[in-house]
User: Fold this.
Amino acid sequence: MQKLGLVSVSFRNLSPKTIIEEAKNAGLSCIEWGSDIHAPYNDTVKLNKIAKMQKEAGLYCCSYGTYFRLGKDDTDELQKYINAAKILGTDILRLWCGTKASIEYSDKEIEALFAECKKAAEIAEKNGVVLCMECHNNTLTDDKDFAIKLIKNISSPAFRMYWQPNQYKTEEENKEYARLLSSFTKNIHVFNWKGDKRFPLKNAVSLWKEYLSFFTDEKTLLLEFMPDDDIKTLYEEVQALKQIVSAE
Assistant:
């Protein structure tokens, strides 16, 4: 059965304590902590406090959602994020690859970015962690062909992907992305967006069942952002997520 969790940046205005309590009460088992607000990599006191609170609540950290950009940030600084992830109790870190849309990259720029990625993968291998690229807009992995080329070029078990549907692409395009990246995907961000508008996840249960059919092994499914940013809506979104993973 898939593990169900929450991305903490869904509620940047709430404290880690509140997020842990609400995630537990909603029936989730894990949290992806964001490095921007809730779990800064350089605040070991806060990181240890989060680790203690989530353990007491019976939850665990499934991933560390960093805002580290390969190709922009100093790769040597990656070690600090890895250290933070280990305090939180996870060996998976989410990163962004690049600083602009894939179509804007020249061959020379891609070559330089791949070199940075290989360096990052080597650091990850030495530390026993996995770096996962988010297929985020305005990064190299916003396109399935660039993403698969990246993963195959780096060719490291410590360098993998997240998957999420792109709200600006068609359902068929998203399905093809899922099919191509399935075997390289660790975690999945779950939401129901169309363009810049958000909708309840319950309206996309059948579509999400189709998306998940492309992933042959179990993944950790993480709710990312609520349709209305309200913590109370989390409970409805969790029920929809449970419908998605049910056999019915």
